[in-house]
Design goal:
Blueprint lengths: L1 E6 L5 H12 L2 E4 H6 L3 H12 L6 H12 L8 E4 L5 H10 L4 E6 L2 H8 L2 E4 L5 E3 L18 E2 L6 H14 L1 H7 L3 E5 L4 H11 L3
Parallel strand pairs: 1-3, 1-4, 2-3, 4-8
Antiparallel strand pairs: 5-6, 5-7
């Protein structure tokens, strides 16, 4: 099964992608993580672009993505998280690969702001906590790896609202593009309830 998980920042799409990928025994490909871990000449080129504050172009992104999807653990399918981000990428993806379904995890803007302004991140293992709903057992320390937690610089209300504006402009048209392939789930529920709804709608 070839799936794409789409949602606003803070919708929990990364968390749900990991849960469902384990359930289906298929690979979870987060393009953000993917770009950070590319090695060799290609990796140097990408890291140079990112360090200079530039976007990774569509052709280069597709090259990295295709290389990852050709690996053994993706032979039975995959879940893409963070791609496509715009209509150009959506058209490329559908032409080059073709996907079965799009899972849109929908939440209201006010929930995004509330979640992200209370979010804590672990730079070591990638775990995410929330000061209101899922605080770490020890203040400022990751429960999983004991590394120090941090708040992203762009997790402030002004930056979040700007990212939401960009999402509506760039990513919302992607959902419209895939039309009948889109399955919408309510991302305002807790992690277990959202996962259950996804499983039900995918008929797992």
């Amino acid at each position: 099964m070839k799936l794409v998980f789409i949602g606003k920042q803070g919708s929990g799409k990364g968390t749900q992608a990991r849960i469902i990928s384990q359930k289906l025994n298929i690979c979870h490909v987060s393009t953000g993580d993917l770009l950070r871990h590319v090695k060799g000449k290609l990796g140097k080129k990408i890291h140079s672009l990112i360090d200079e504050g530039n976007m990774v172009g569509d052709e280069l992104m597709l090259e990295v993505l295709m290389e990852r999807l050709r690996k053994e653990d993706c032979k039975n399918g995959f879940i893409l998280d963070g791609y496509p981000r715009d209509l150009v990428q959506a058209r490329i993806l559908e032409k080059e690969i073709g996907v079965d379904l799009i899972v849109e995890i929908y939440i209201e803007d006010k929930i995004v702001v509330d979640r992200l302004t209370n979010r804590l991140n672990c730079g070591n293992c990638g775990a995410i906590f929330n000061l209101k709903t899922n605080p770490p057992h020890k203040e400022g320390i990751c429960d999983k790896c004991s590394d120090e937690l941090f708040v992203r610089e762009d997790d402030n209300e002004a930056a979040i609202l700007q990212r939401l504006k960009l999402y509506k402009k760039k990513t919302q048209p992607v959902i419209n593009f895939f039309g009948k392939k889109v399955i919408r789930v309510d991302g305002s529920k807790n992690v277990e309830e959202v996962a259950k709804e996804i499983e039900e709608k995918l008929k797992l």
